[in-house]
């Protein structure tokens, strides 16, 4: 007779799930060779080397400076949904293709900045504006 044992690791499921729910913080660098939101090299995150903000727990920062950020209408998931987007610099949101929508829980605009939409949309349930 062969004896079989089942091993149950109750904490493992929680650890894997909680990591996905916590999200990560990203800062736009624009170092990706294009201006696409979904190009991982355009973002810096201490917690994820080959990622871009695309999960509901993620926060994204567009730092001071002048930037072009192209939203991407992907075939499988045309809309990105993140937690918070903070804009501290001038940014021109363009579109690579289609009509993408970036959904954010809160959009914070810091200081006198210019934000242009060349297509697509940013949808937020909360808009915060702070002049420095």
Q: How is this structure best described in words?
A:
The protein has 132 residues and is mostly beta strands. It has one domain (24-130). It has one helix at residues 10-22, and strands at 25-28, 43-44, 59-62, 66-71, 79-87, 90-95, 101-110, 115-117, 121-130. The strands form two sheets. Strands 2-1-3-5-7-9 form a six-stranded mixed beta sheet, with no helix packed on it. A three-stranded parallel beta sheet has the order 4-6-8, with no helix packed on it. The longest helix is centred in the N-terminal third of the chain and has 13 residues, at 10-22. The model is unreliable at 3-20 (pLDDT under 50).
DSSP E strands, number: 9
DSSP summary: helix tally:
1
What topology, given as strand order, has the largest sheet? 2-1-3-5-7-9
Q: What structural class should be given to the helix and strand makeup?
A: mainly beta
Strand count, sense and barrel status of the largest sheet are: 6 strands, mixed
Approximately how much beta-strand content do the residues carry? Answer: 35-45%
What is the N-to-C order of secondary-structure elements (H for helix, E for strand)? HEEEEEEEEE
Our measurement of the CA-to-CA distance between the termini, rounded to an integer number of angstroms, reads: 75 Å
Unreliably modeled segments: 3-20
Shape verdict: globular
Mean pLDDT, to the nearest integer, reads 81
Please state the CA-atom Rg, rounded to the nearest Å.
18 Å
Measured as a percent range, the helix fraction is under 10%
The domain tally reads 1
